[in-house]
Amino acid sequence: MNAFGRIGRGRVARNVNEIHEATTTFGERVADSVARFGGSWTFIFIFLAVMLLWVGINSLELLLRPFDPFPFIFLNLVLSCLAALQAPVIMMSQNRQTTRDRIAAEHDYEVNLKAELEIEELHQKMDVMREDQWAELARMQQHQIALLEELLTVLGPLAPADKDRLTRADDVGQDGRGQGRSASTSLSS
Q1: Closest C-alpha to 88, from 38, 43, 21
Q2: Which of 50, 66, 82, 134 has an alpha carbon 20 to 30 Å from 23's alpha carbon atom?
Q3: Confidence of residue 146 (pLDDT cuts 50, 70, 90)
Q4: 11: Cβ–Cβ under 8 A, 6 or more apart, which residues?
């Protein structure tokens, strides 16, 4: 079975995103949302504000007992936990994007293959049509040659007076300015 038979005449175009979304699990959708939020300016600004607030509250000397004094060990623990959780979630999202890209590439290949096969089929049809037209033109030419030969046999050879008359009519031409071909060239060709 050739590739065209595998693809067939059916519709190849489809929305790859819809196909991919239909097969996603809840965890994969959450991973995409976390990765989308974690890579946004909103996350960066909120994270920066929380960091500044944390350092500001724990650096004020007005507070008698800050809950995370200067080396900010608890803040380091929170940041490490955030990075430890965010990295695998982002990697899961990237894996899903890779899968979506693979599906899109396969779909593009199928569409391109079908287009190539249909173009090849059109070329074959055009070749057949051209061959048929050439054959028809050859038949028409043979028929015209046969008619001309029949006409020549019916008229017989031209008399010298007829040749002179044809030469004068051809020299004058259709526009009347005398720019026609001579009868000898027209009869010989």
Answers
A1: 38
A2: 82
A3: very high
A4: none
8 A C-beta contact, residue 171 and residue 180: yes
**Domain boundaries along the sequence of the chain:** 14-153, 160-188
Token couple for 70: 């200067």
Q: In sequence order, which residues have a C-beta less than 8 Å from that of residue 20 and are 6 or more positions away?
A: 96, 99, 100, 103
- Cα distances (angstroms) measured from residue 144 to each of 103, 148, 187: 61, 6, 17
pTM above 0.70, yes or no: no
Token match 């909103």: residue?
42
**CB 31, CB 39: distance < 8 Å:** no
Question: pLDDT tens-digit profile of 75-124?
Answer: 898 899 888 888 888 888 888 889 889 888 998 999 999 999 999 999 99
Measure CA 111 to chain center: 8
